Amino acid sequence: MPVTRHLLLRPSLLSDAAELHRFLGDPEVMALTHRDADLAATEARIAAYEARRVSDGFAPWTAILRGSGQIVGWGGLYVDPADPDWGPEVGYYFAAEVWGRGLAGELVAEALREADQTHRLAQVTGFAHADNAASRRVLTRAGFVEVGDVPEMGRIQYRRTRPASPEVFASRRSRH
Questions:
Q1: Which residues contact 78 (CB under 8 A, 6 or more apart)?
Q2: What is the pTM of this model?
Q3: pLDDT at res. 165
Q4: What pLDDT, on a 0 to 100 scale, did the predictor assign at position 167?
Q5: How many angstroms separate the Cα of 122 from the Cα of each of 1, 56, 109, 117, 137?
Q6: pLDDT means over runs of 10, the chain (176 residues)
Q7: Which value, to the nearest 10 degrees, does the dihedral of the CA atoms of residues 124, 160, 129, 39 take?
Q8: pLDDT score for 166
Q9: Contact 75/90 with Cβ under 8 angstroms?
């Protein structure tokens, strides 16, 4: 189970659904992305991504705040079950009460470590709504570059290529 400075990251369980739905179903929190309409939709999301974990070897984690044990986020490295043609992506969703604390950056850094070191993926994609400045900053700070607008998604696509050597990755990681 990956651990960051503030988070414990573990595979999602159906028993997490109610706590995850607290923010994945919140119209304000999810205003710039897909919102789960009800608890059943959050359960379906968990099940679909966990099925991808079996085939891909990775899927979003449930993010638990160290110390409190509270579920505060969901995300990581994944292939979207509804749109797998984009390939490996990183995504992150957090409860509003923990916004601005750097947790998305921690989660993305761990997802990229997994992409680089465990799965040796050549590249990873990310998406952010043009109006979501915080999410766009998370991606650019993690080494993603803007690729362009994806009108059918209402998002901007970002891409990050795996560093050429472990030394490059280590130096990039030490700057964060």
A1: 49, 52, 56, 58, 59, 60, 88, 89, 90, 91
A2: 0.90
A3: 63
A4: 52
A5: 23, 15, 16, 11, 22
A6: 95 98 95 93 97 97 96 98 96 96 97 97 97 96 97 95 67 48
A7: 30
A8: 55
A9: yes
Distance separating alpha carbons of residues 123 and 104, to the nearest angstrom: 19
pLDDT given for residue 172 in this prediction: 47
Sign of the four-CA dihedral 128, 125, 14, 2: negative
Cα separation, 131 vs 176, whole angstroms: 24
Q: Exposed, middle or buried, 58 (CB in 10 Å: 0-12/13-18/19+)?
A: buried
CA distances from 113 to 108, 119, 139, 145, 175 (A): 9, 9, 14, 17, 14
Domains annotated for the chain, with CATH where assigned, are 7-174 (3.40.630.30)
Residues 6+ apart with CB under 8 A from 129: 32, 33, 135, 154, 155, 156
Q: Which two tokens stand for residue 90?
A: 């990183």
Rounded to whole angstroms, the Cα distance separating 73 from 62 reads 6
What pairs with residue 150 in β-bridges? 155
Count of all residues that appear for the chain in the document? 176
Structure tokens at 128: 């952010």
Q: What pLDDT, on a 0 to 100 scale, did the predictor assign at position 168?
A: 46
What tokens appear for 160 in the block?
């990050």
Q: How far apart are CA 15 and CA 79, in angstroms?
A: 22
